[in-house]
Amino acid sequence: MAQAPVVTDQYAILAQRLQTLTRVMTTNAPIAQTPKQLVWTLNKAKLYRYVPAASHEERHRVPLLLIFALMNRPSILDLRPGNSFVEFLVQRGYDVYLLDWGVPGPEDKNLKFDDYTLDYLPRAIRKVKTLSGVEEVSVLGWCIGAILTTIYAALRPDDGLRNLILLTAPLDFSNKEKLTFGRWTDEKYFDVDKVIAAFGNMPGEMIDYGAKALKPVENYISNYLKLYDNLDNPQIVEAWHAMNTWIKDTIPMTGAAFHQLIIDLYRNDRLMKGELLIRGERVDLSRLRANLLTVIAEGDHITPPCQSESILDKVGSSDREIFRVKGGHIGIMVGNAAHTRTWPYIERWLGARSK
Amino acid sequence: MSEAEAGNTNQSDPMETFREMRNAYLDLWSKNMIELVNSEGYAQASGAMLDNYLSSLAPFRETFEKTMLQTLQQFGLPTSVDFAGLAGRLTNIEMRLDDMDAKLDRIEKLIVPSQQFNELNAKLERIEKLTVPSQQFNELNAKLERIERLTVPSQQFNELNTKLDSIEKLVMRSRSEPIQQKTAPVAPEAPKQTAAAKPPVQTAPVRQPGGRTPDAVQRATTVKPTQPTARRGAK
User: Fold this and answer.
1) Cα separation of B132 and B126, whole Å?
2) Are A338 and A351 in contact (CB under 8 A)?
3) How many Cβ atoms from other residues are within 10 Å of residue A28's Cβ?
4) Model pTM score
5) What is the torsion angle, in degrees rounded to the nearest 10, for the CA atoms of residue A325, residue A328, residue A332 and residue A335?
6) Is the pLDDT confidence value at B200 over 60?
7) Among A10, A38, A87, B157, which is most buried by a count of CB atoms within 10 Å?
8) Does the distance separating the beta carbons of A130 and B54 come in below 8 Å?
9) Which pLDDT band holds residue B133 (cuts at 50, 70, 90)?
């Protein structure tokens, strides 16, 4: 007779777990909640300004512009309240702006790095300067966003860029042995023209598959088992839910930009060699003079550390620094290490250079 | 449930051993898979798969695109190429608008000083009005005029003048008729007429136009009309 309630309880727990699992797998978590306002648009790109938490007198003088990759949403920078890099910076008195590249349509397939770095970025930065009333600006670029900001900083060194922070920046493509993406996209196996001719833009699902396939067991199996094991822990479930909402919201990369990424960078390493041409203008990294902080994730499978280290030897900045963090490509900015190490370090570095 | 409670639940979970074994197996599997996807063989295989997929897709895609293009052209409808061109033009217009917006911002910044000047000027005018309020000025002016009238009342002046004239006549008569006694009744008036040190005998013959003595003329000219005029001018 004593067995009956136990069995009932077990069923109730199981039902509750299934309900949680269904909710997490089929719904989107509320992400990117920090209050912001749209201040500028160009084609699909949108520039947001976060509502400052500090008064004008208490704020850091130099505004900060965040630039994420082309093939994912930038909401990873503002994942959820209490776990948001944007919120962290706003609360510490920074005037924070975010450039969202938007979702390119078939009509945007010809957009190249040239357009992003010479049409979109300079105008967005100009708007930031106008709105903040300051002629200097700090820029944080992450992943492909770091490539774009580096190219821009080298091409337009007199545009008022004071501080440049590069997160997991894939800039050096010389070490072919360590680049799994490089191996997959080698000209022997991968016909980039054929792919672009077929799809126009590089589909987000394919890019997502490529990123996940670097660690297939973790991404396709362990990740879900971790959720299942912790279905009774609301903190872990909600964090997982928010992260999954961001991961599955992939966006395509414009065909021309993807072509440049493969041909100019992965195959020929033109940026580091000083051979990259943007609208006929050679990108000379020695012209980059902004204060530079490069953040490297030691466990990064997408951008191995060797891709971000050598930039320091190439730039003309007198103030340059490398900061290494344990963690993965995304984990360094949203995991536990983010709160305790990455964010405070970036904030201190930037704070000292934003007066 | 707190993290500590969650930890206790896990410890008492009979599946814990199974989980540990499972995780160990997954770790091993993961390492092997990472090595596998990093190999040339995997790159070659995945490249071949993608190539086959694209090659098999290409004829259908090309046929579909040609058919779609012909159909749209027959109906006079815009194609995807037309839309792409239009989108490009719109983006160019957006960029030009953005540049114009930035130029306007710069112009606005330049205009601001003159606007500030106008504001400053208006403020000064307001201050000026407050400093010399016209009503107060008018009241002050009226008061001054009243004081002026009180200082030299014309009636008194006229009376005085008449008295002086009569005294003068008496003096003249006494000179022409040598009767000394007749001058006696007007003696108290003499000090008024001659003022301080001048004896009546010296002043009497010097006649001024209008029949006044020099002293009377002097008083009339210095007191009466000049003071108010001078005050008004000062204001």
Assistant:
1) 10
2) no
3) 12
4) 0.76
5) -130
6) no
7) A87
8) no
9) low
